[in-house]
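FAQ

Q: What does a record look like?
A: Structure on top, sequence underneath. For example:
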């Protein structure tokens, strides 16, 4: 089955009249219709084998330039996502740790003492208990 666009479009650059989709692509590119060329399959385009070498060169250059532009756009988007993630991580690290909800007054735990202070307090309590016993 032949492509109706390819069979109806002669090459706009050279005198080739063989049916090929490259002719429609070259016509779209000549009119600066990049969306139309993409819709016709510019990214997967193959040059017409019967056209002049300049036609194939133009098509290949346009295809490669568009592929390069799309790859650059994808790299830019990936970089933007990466920078946003890094910024969010930095902001999260700068935020203070969330404090636990305040416990009722009767159930508040006493703050933990350093071990040396806890040992000294335990000795003092033992002496006090020994005096009163």
């Amino acid at each position: 089955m032949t492509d109706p666009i390819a069979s109806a479009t002669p090459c706009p650059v050279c005198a080739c009249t063989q049916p090929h989709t490259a002719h429609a692509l070259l016509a779209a590119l000549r009119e600066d219709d990049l969306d139309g060329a993409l819709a016709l399959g510019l990214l997967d385009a193959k040059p017409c084998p019967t056209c002049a070498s300049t036609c194939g060169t133009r098509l290949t250059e346009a295809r490669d330039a568009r592929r390069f532009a799309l790859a650059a756009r994808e790299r830019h988007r990936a970089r933007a996502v990466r920078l946003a993630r890094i910024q969010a991580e930095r902001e999260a690290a700068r935020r203070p740790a969330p404090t636990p909800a305040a416990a009722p007054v009767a159930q508040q735990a006493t703050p933990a003492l350093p071990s040396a202070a806890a040992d000294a307090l335990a000795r003092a309590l033992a002496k006090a208990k020994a005096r009163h016993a």
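Q: Is there anything notable about this one?
A: The chain has a mean pLDDT of 85.
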